[in-house]
């Protein structure tokens, strides 16, 4: 009888232990997952990570180690309006697109032109800047227009609409098109004689000429061959942040904050009506 009682106690103890193991572990896992989700959600609402390519003055560039520029000031105003904190990371042009697509950053701003091809993979806010391309050449160059680029070595920033604009004239992947990691490097190649012209955004050309008057370079416009384009803030496809930032950007444009930032960096009054009608 004592033996039967002993076996009964052993079986009861094993049942209690198995029940404890069966109910405790999943509860701990669920709780941990919930905590992780809450932390991720809180981080997403309070502080967003923004990617950029900080060699595109005056939109974004490094000044004493700090990323500054028109885009950076506009981003801060839009973030404040939308109610987010943010951190800007200098990633480089090509890695920037990969980081947004993979969700490594929440959004990107870097003078990014809204194109039909990019809209297939990314979402954009409404336009915040109208741009066109210019040709930067040495003084005395026989290049007077975009069509004069035929037969010349032309520097562009790789993967930009400047590259695409030149490819329309010279042909896609033409060997005379030299692609650089940034507009700044392309301009350096022009100064070194590696290329005979550089095609990039008009604001970048004008800013360079203003800050480097002794470089003996001139900028050429060509509205017949270079169409205007618009920059937008870029998000991963399907991001819920896009509409939030679209509304905040609209407010910043309409309440005059945009004009103040624009005049600070470009010294002129922006055409706000064109931006608001360019949706």
Low-confidence spans: 1-40
Strand content: 15-25%
Number of helices: 10
pLDDT averaged over residues: 87
In sequence order, what are the helices and strands, one letter per element? HEEEEHEHEHEEEEHEHEHEEEHHH
Count the strands?
15
What is the alpha-carbon Rg in Å?
A: 27 Å
Fraction of helical residues: 40-55%
The separation of the N and C termini measures 89 Å
Shape: globular
What is the chains' assembly state? single chain
Structural class: alpha/beta
Describe the structure.
- The structure is a single chain.
- The protein is α/β, with parallel strands linked by helices and 279 residues long.
- It has helices at 2-46, 70-82, 93-101, 116-119, 161-170, 183-191, 202-211, 241-254, 257-266, 272-276, and strands at residues 47-52, 55-56, 60-63, 66-68, 85-90, 107-108, 122-124, 129-131, 133-138, 154-157, 177-180, 197-201, 217-221, 229-231, 234-236.
- A 5-stranded mixed β-sheet has the order 11-10-12-9-13, sandwiched between helices. The protein has a 3-stranded parallel β-sheet with strand order 5-1-6.
- Strand 10 (154-157), helix 5 (161-170) and strand 11 (177-180) form a beta-alpha-beta unit.
- Helix 2 runs antiparallel to helix 9.
- The longest helix has 45 residues, at 2-46.
- Residues 1-40 have low confidence and may be disordered.
């Amino acid at each position: 009888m004592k033996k039967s009682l002993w076996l009964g106690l052993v079986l009861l103890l094993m049942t209690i232990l198995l029940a404890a193991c069966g109910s405790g572990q999943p509860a701990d896992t669920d709780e941990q997952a919930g905590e992780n989700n809450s932390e991720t959600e809180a981080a997403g609402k309070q502080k967003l990570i923004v990617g950029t390519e900080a060699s595109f003055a005056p939109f974004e560039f490094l000044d004493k180690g700090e990323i500054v520029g028109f885009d950076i000031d506009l981003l801060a105003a839009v973030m404040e309006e939308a109610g987010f904190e943010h951190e800007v990371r200098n990633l480089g042009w090509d890695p920037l697109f990969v980081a947004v697509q993979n969700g490594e950053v929440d959004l990107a701003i870097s003078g990014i032109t809204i194109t039909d091809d990019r809209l297939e993979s990314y979402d954009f806010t409404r336009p915040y800047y109208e741009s066109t391309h210019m040709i930067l050449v040495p003084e005395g160059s026989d290049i007077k227009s975009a069509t004069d680029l035929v037969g010349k070595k032309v520097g562009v920033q790789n993967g930009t609409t400047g590259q695409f604009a030149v490819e329309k004239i010279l042909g896609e992947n033409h060997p005379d098109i030299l692609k650089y990691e940034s507009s700044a490097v392309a301009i350096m190649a022009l100064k070194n004689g590696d290329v005979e012209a550089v095609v990039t955004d008009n604001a970048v050309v004008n800013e360079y000429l203003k800050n480097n008057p002794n470089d003996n370079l001139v900028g050429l416009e060509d509205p017949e061959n270079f169409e205007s384009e618009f920059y937008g803030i870029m998000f991963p496809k399907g991001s819920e942040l896009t509409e939030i930032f679209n509304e905040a950007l609209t407010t910043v444009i309409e309440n005059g904050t945009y004009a103040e930032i624009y005049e600070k960096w470009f010294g002129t009054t922006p055409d706000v009506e064109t931006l608001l009608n360019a949706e």
